[in-house]
Amino acid sequence: LSFVWQEGGEDILVDSGKFGYSRDQFRTYFLSTRAHNTIEFNHNSSKRNAKNSYGSGIKTLKLVPNGWMIDAYAPKPANGYTHHRTVFFQPGEQVMVFDKVEPIELNRMNAYTAWWHFSPTLDVNLYEMHAKLTNSNNGRSIIVLNYSNAEITKSIYACGSEHPYYQGWMSTGYLKAEPCPTIGFHGTVKGTFIMVTVFDLVLNNVFSKSKLDHDIMNKIPMLDWNDAEIQALKNFNRTKI
What we know:
The protein is built from three helices and 16 strands. By secondary structure, it is mainly β. Strand 9 and strand 10 (130-135) form a beta hairpin.
């Protein structure tokens, strides 16, 4: 359920690319879950063989006020979870991502990391569970905010890292890899994992917290989740946002 994002002809969220058909650590990285804009479950990559394929993940694509909603679902039984992602895209304003991961084993602690890979034109300043991205070419800014129901949380920054594992790379040509700024929002929790990640385009470096609260609460009723999960998300928003 990875995706890319371009705005006004400029790359923001990027895909890692294929790199090439070699047999080395770079090829292993570019095939991994952590090389894409998606959720990594218990530090493992999703199995890629044919018997674990599930077809298209997109369930719904529809027009909503001021933008689009994409609802997608990916069953990963071989990896022990299912991933449900809903993206609200308001061109020129905001991308809001709601992630729900349901593990098969509900009674154990599981680790989750949402990875986000950005264009090398963006400078990243990371502040705990949020970040500010600044385009070095035009000075435009993007605020990234992350909220989850995880009991323990931390953020990770990487750009062209090789240790303790490869992270923060994009392929710019066959067998070519260049560093790209990458953020991971990590959390551990027992049971269903819920995360909201907001990418808010900032005009004149003015960011409206009240606008974010209003936008999130307006979009929650449109989620295709059950009533208990929606209510939990509303409660968590009131206490943490």
